[in-house]
Design goal:
Radius of gyration: 29 Å
GO molecular function, one term: ATP binding
Distance between the termini: 34 Å
Number of helices: 18
Number of strands: 34
Organism: Podospora aff. communis PSN243
Cofactor: Mg(2+)
Helix content: 10-25%
Structural class: alpha+beta
Binding site for Mg(2+): 422, 791
Shape: elongated
EC number: 2.7.2.1
Length: 807
């Protein structure tokens, strides 16, 4: 379900939609708005550029190597890095324009005010598109990589329609119209300063009106050049009626909803004691890095004033001032017919990958997602949208809808459906349970997308323990509707100071957004899925279950870092620990298997997967764990370094303190964090994230990665053995690698045999059929277990047992 999609623009122009990227596009292809076909003759350079191209871009501008690239059809893809993929003029040429944010709403294409070309048609300024910060552009030809640098991107389009379509695809909002303005101001940024100089929010700007493709709400944007920030306001947040309208000077004022009508003097001076209204604004500083105020309101805004440019060169009927008045009334009336617009909408699109529209190919009941070279990974929020819609339709679930329950019935006595969503670093798992309050949930079906960091990604459906192909119907065909889902529980890696699951409210969501920087591989993707569920499963309660909550019992002397305590307290710098949902399940399952009370249980547990960690469990509660403030600490993973000398990264690269290009307005990632989280681990040593390949190989790099992981695991086992003073009931292997790699288990147990652990070789190679498998060898002092940890079930169980989530 992820990948790329280009929605049809419904702008005020009759824009033609370019086709998906076609790798056969050549200079002799037809125009971009018609079907392309492969050339019948060999290609050669064309003197005047290839027919049918949509735009041009210059690389190595103002150097001896300056090159003009002719760009044909494009796709905006939402893979590991959101970017535009252009098919260029010759076969085998591809240009990738990497965007600085995964959120479409954070992208602001920039066109100049018409005064910058005084002798042309003002509309033609839309042909020249740029951005206020450098973007990465990668250009490959049949001979290999030609360009991969950050540049000031400058597009020159062949038609205004193409430019509008392209801008709409970048933002997820159709460009409805644009207006040249002399100045825009507010009560907080007055039109003139005390010396009479024109100041305001922005001067000599091209203001644009957008319509969101998902909600159909309208937005105004312009660049506040005095503050070097983008401003975006929802039309819905202002009154429809204009104030201080002056047709002669082409000037008007729109009041924020709820603001008391300002007098003329108040409007001109911007001072007043009334309660003000905060309109939404999106900031992005000129250098492209996240602003310290990113994502915050503009300040308390009571009104927005606009003075439009008088342009004698405008075409008849295209007066900006009059067009704005007409379209404002239309947009405001349209927005007023719906509920308030969402503050942020994540893109959850059907897959179009290298021109392949969202159709999965099923082989023996398993759906394989396309895995093109240009799209090595698929982001979890995009995968999830289609997964839920198709999954729920396919399951044909039976339940009672909460909104249809009689008031005379006790809701706590009714059955409901719990959807359990587990977004990991390399997979997304979704399980559906039938549940009653106070009773263990019963699984109905499960879907999993795996291989996100080791393509090809595979989509797997299971019902009743059996794999099935899409379209297979249950013999017991019952109600199937999204409203049947009563609770959606989400695995959120970093929960900060939350020590129990939480209903997701606006306040909860804001707190979790603030923790994105601490779990960059997980939290932002999980919150994207939360947004999808809030939007698409409107009747369900959304519950956040935190990987860090199990570790809230770690004692102070273990969770505290030896740094300035005041700074640590104010910035909440301490060990939090993760994989807690898995460890909670392991503790319960192991206690049941061993026939002990969980309060008396002492374990050393290993959750080994693409993300790996260890945990000492004392009295059924977390005593210590390998991960710390973030999931980066501790054991190495598929792309994580694990614990290293903190100064290593400063010797590794010179720009580690700078913000990564992967940073967004909400997510601030330094190059150091990007290197250690995404460019390290066993992938850095071997070139693959697939540990099965590593374990099966004797090649020196593979063996090094294998031995390194074994060494780090044994180090934590020894440390926790001493911390628990040798009082250990069992060592437990869990997680994808812990469950499946008998070779890893054997290597670890050989190295720690001195602690009294022994391995049964026959049991070690047995397939795990039940929740827990005992692989302890004869003569061992401690048990050795393998546990099929089920985080989805654990989250559903928590929800089923908490009355708060059933009220």
């Amino acid at each position: 379900m992820a990948g790329s999609r280009r929605s049809v623009s419904s702008s005020s122009f009759n824009s033609s939609v370019p086709p998906p990227v076609d790798l056969t596009f050549t200079p002799t292809s037809q125009t971009a708005t018609s079907q392309t076909s492969a050339p019948a003759t060999p290609l050669g350079p064309l003197d005047l550029g290839p027919p049918g191209y949509n735009a041009t871009i210059k690389l190595y501008e103002r150097t001896a190597n300056e090159t003009t690239v002719f760009l044909g059809p494009w796709d905006v893809v939402n893979a590991e890095s959101r970017r535009v993929i252009w098919q260029c003029s010759y076969a085998g040429e591809v240009l990738e324009h990497f965007l600085p944010s995964e959120y479409a709403a954070d992208i602001f294409p920039y066109t100049l005010h018409s005064q910058h070309r005084r002798f042309g048609d003002p509309r033609e300024m839309e042909l020249y598109l740029t951005f206020r910060e450098p973007h990465r552009v990668r250009y490959s030809t049949i001979d290999g990589l030609f360009h991969d640098e950050y540049i000031e991107v400058k597009y020159e389009f062949t038609t205004i329609d193409c430019s509008m379509q392209f801008q709409g695809d970048l933002r997820g909002k159709d460009l409805v119209d644009w207006y040249d303005v002399d100045v825009a101001w507010s009560d907080t940024h007055r039109r003139t300063d005390s010396y009479g100089n024109v100041r305001g929010l922005g001067t000599i700007q091209r203001m644009k009106l957008w319509r969101d493709r998902y909600s159909n709400f309208h937005y105004l944007t312009f660049y506040a050049n005095h503050r070097r920030r983008w401003k975006e306001y929802a039309v819905h947040d202002f009154d429809a009626e204009f104030r201080q309208r002056d047709d002669r000077h082409r000037r008007l004022q729109i009041n924020a909803r709820g603001a008391r009508r300002a007098s003329a003097s108040e409007s001109s001076h911007g001072h007043g004691r009334e309660r003000r209204f905060s309109a939404t604004s999106i900031f992005r500083p000129r250098n492209g890095g996240p602003s310290s105020t990113a994502g915050q309101p503009t300040g308390e805004l009571r009104y927005l004033g606009i003075q439009f440019t008088r342009n004698d060169r405008a075409q008849p009927g295209s007066d900006d001032y009059r067009r704005f008045i007409d379209l404002w009334n239309y947009a405001h009336d349209l927005d007023g017919q719906s509920d308030a617009p969402p503050s942020r909408v994540s893109e959850l699109e059907s897959p179009v990958i290298n021109g392949t529209s969202g159709q999965n190919h099923y082989i023996n009941g398993v759906a394989e997602l396309p895995s093109p070279e240009l799209l090595p990974t698929l982001p979890t929020p995009q995968i999830f949208g289609d997964l839920v819609n198709e999954f729920v339709e396919d399951l044909q679930l039976r339940t009672l809808r909460p909104r249809e329950l009689s008031r005379s019935l006790n809701f706590l006595e009714m059955k409901s459906i719990i959807l359990s969503v587990n977004a990991g670093s390399s997979s997304v798992k979704v399980s559906v349970y039938s549940a009653e309050y106070g009773h263990p949930p019963v699984q109905l079906a499960e879907a999993q997308v795996s291989g996100l960091t080791a393509p090809p990604a595979v989509l797997d459906y299971t019902r009743g323990g059996e794999k099935v192909a899409k379209g297979d119907k249950l013999s017991d065909k019952t109600i199937g509707h999204k409203d049947d889902i009563g609770i959606v529980c989400h695995r959120i890696v970093h929960g900060g100071d939350y020590n129990k699951a939480q209903l997701i409210s606006q306040d909860t969501y804001r707190v979790l957004e603030g923790l994105n920087d601490l779990a960059p591989l997980h939290n932002s993707n999980s919150l994207g899925i939360v947004q999808a569920c809030i939007r698409d499963l409107s009747s369900a309660r959304n519950v956040a279950c935190f990987d860090s909550q199990f570790h809230s019992t770690i004692p102070p002397h273990i969770r505290t870092y030896p740094i300035n305590p005041d700074i640590a307290k104010s910035n909440k710098l301490r060990k939090y620990g993760f994989h807690g949902i898995s460890y909670s399940f392991i503790a319960r399952a192991s206690a049941n298997f061993l026939g002990k009370s969980q309060d008396e249980l002492n374990l050393i547990a290993l959750h080994l997967g693409s993300g790996a960690s260890a945990c000492a469990i004392k009295g059924g509660k977390s005593w210590d764990t390998s991960m710390g403030l973030t999931p980066l600490a501790g054991l190495p993973g598929a792309t994580r370094s694990g614990s290293v000398d903190p100064s290593l990264v400063f010797h590794y690269a010179s720009d580690v303190g700078r913000l990564s290009p992967a940073s967004t307005k909400e997510l601030h990632i330094s190059r150091a964090e990007e290197i250690l989280n995404k460019e390290a681990g066993w992938k850095a040593l071997t070139g693959t994230t697939n540990f099965g390949i590593i374990a099966a190989s004797n090649d020196p790099p593979m063996k090094l990665a294998f031995d390194l992981l074994v060494d780090r695991i044994c180090g934590f086992i020894g440390s926790y053995y001493v911390s628990l003073r040798g009082d250990v009931d069992a060592l437990v292997f869990a997680g994808g690698i812990g469950e499946k790699s008998d070779k890893l288990r054997r290597a670890v147990l050989q190295q720690i045999s001195c602690l009294g652990f022994a391995l049964d070789e026959d049991a070690n190679t047995m397939k795990l059929e039940d929740v827990v498998l005992d692989i302890s060898g004869a003569g061992g002092k401690h048990r050795v277990l393998v546990c099929a940890s089920d985080e989805q079930f654990e989250m559903a169980r928590v929800c089923a047992e908490d009355e708060e989530f059933w009220q």
